[in-house]
Amino acid sequence: MAWVYLFVAAALEIGWAVGLKYSHGFTKPLPSVLTVVAMVLSLVLLAMAVRTLPIGTSYAIWTGIGAVGTAVLGIALFSEPVTAWRVLFLLLIVGGIAGLKVTA
């Protein structure tokens, strides 16, 4: 169950990171509230996951999934640039996440 908590926490991290963009510096009420709720839930689920999973592995996976997911949504939603280097480094993060999962 800890892995489920961790992956949902990571998905919520993506949500709050993208929510920061939509909240326009916390000036828009609904996106701001949703962003803060996602932040809190993400941290609570991460805390639940680290009850049984190693903190180093959990945190690295949480931030890695959040970084990759946020970058992908930045490309899809906000027309951020797609370059070969960016894709390569995102794939390296994914490889690191997979390696941590396999060895945990």
From TrEMBL:
It is a multi-pass membrane protein. InterPro entries: EmrE-like, Small_drug/metabolite_transptr, Small_multidrug_res. It is found in: Cell membrane. One of its GO terms (biological process) is xenobiotic detoxification by transmembrane export across the plasma membrane. GO terms for cellular component: plasma membrane. Its main location: membrane. It comes from the Bacteria. Keywords: Cell membrane, Membrane, Transmembrane, Transmembrane helix, Transport. GO terms for molecular function: transmembrane transporter activity. Pfam families: Multi_Drug_Res. The chain crosses the membrane at residues 33-50, 59-78, 84-103. PANTHER family: GUANIDINIUM EXPORTER (PTHR30561:SF0), SMR FAMILY PROTON-DEPENDENT DRUG EFFLUX TRANSPORTER SUGE (PTHR30561). Belongs to the drug/metabolite transporter (DMT) superfamily. Small multidrug resistance (SMR) (TC 2.A.7.1) family. Gdx/SugE subfamily. This is Guanidinium exporter. It comes from Pseudobythopirellula maris. The gene is sugE.
